[in-house]
Write the structure tokens for this entry.
Amino acid sequence: MSQEGIHLETSLGYLLKQASSELRAAMEAVLRPLGMTVTHYSCLELLAQRPGLSNSELARGAFVTRQSMNVLLQALERDGYVTRPTEARVGRVSPAQLTPRGRQSLEQASAAVRSVEVQMLGGMTPEEQATAHHVLNRMIRALRNADEDSLE
Amino acid sequence: MSQEGIHLETSLGYLLKQASSELRAAMEAVLRPLGMTVTHYSCLELLAQRPGLSNSELARGAFVTRQSMNVLLQALERDGYVTRPTEARVGRVSPAQLTPRGRQSLEQASAAVRSVEVQMLGGMTPEEQATAHHVLNRMIRALRNADEDSLE
DNA sequence: AACAGTATGTCAGAATGCTGACATGAGTCA
DNA sequence: TGACTCATGTCAGCATTCTGACATACTGTT
């Protein structure tokens, strides 16, 4: 059982992956008793904050492909958590809405996830939280620009 | 095509997931031409920095289950990138080693991944990098403690 | 020495997500 | 109007990872 730090600990990329992995595990742990997966929860939370999001938009927001989100949405619709108009009004986009049942199901999950985030923020001061916010945004922007650069 | 920021952007957890997702995508993009997956690369990199790691230790380092790492290791062994002793000397642990071929294959991948990390660090000052390092470690520690707490 | 507890390697089945592909509708430009 | 491009929803097949399970080996306790 050797658990001393690897040299990779000096890599921000590795740290990022590690933190994300830990966060995901913690979320899965609190969502499992509710019979909910992380993507499942992300979908509901996105719909609560932005009613009318389409399948593709939800997929982008939950960091999965639109195909994956589609099967999830169909299940959620079948089980009565969300509704989608039978026919699209504009283009092929069919905006999704939470049902009261979906909203209720989200409430407990949202509280559970909030507790995880509070745990994660631990004893961080508001200043530290602000710098974390700032630094993560910097990384995201830098990586996104790299993608665009390679596309031309 | 509505791409304006969601309210969730104020959540550090969401930002973390976003950054991690972006980083993973960027790594996949540069590793694909080399016929290598992220877990594949992680395994080789870990072995280069810490020769003799066992299957389970590699799994933890690459953030996958030991079962997943096992199938990868078997493939890598079959293709001559790593070697493992046919019989364990102590317990069931069989330490893995990179072959020259594995080391060579890693070289290009390592350079590619380094370029991604440089891109990610973008115009970040050394101070910002240090705070990023610090803040991510804080989050990781807080989440890990939460896990231990729930185990008792 | 016997025991429980824990960690490991490994196999098999299940779940989840992804890639490929297709048809449809909107926007653009000649 | 017609051709081209792009985004969307959706289906099918594939890949990767995970969960469950088992045998084995070390560790510490009584």
Q: What stands out?
A: Helices of chain A lie at 12-31, 38-49, 55-62, 66-78, 100-121, 126-150. Chain A touches chain B through 58 residues (CB under 8 Å). The CA atoms of residues 55 and 73 of chain A lie 8 Å apart. The beta strands of chain A are 82-83, 97-98.
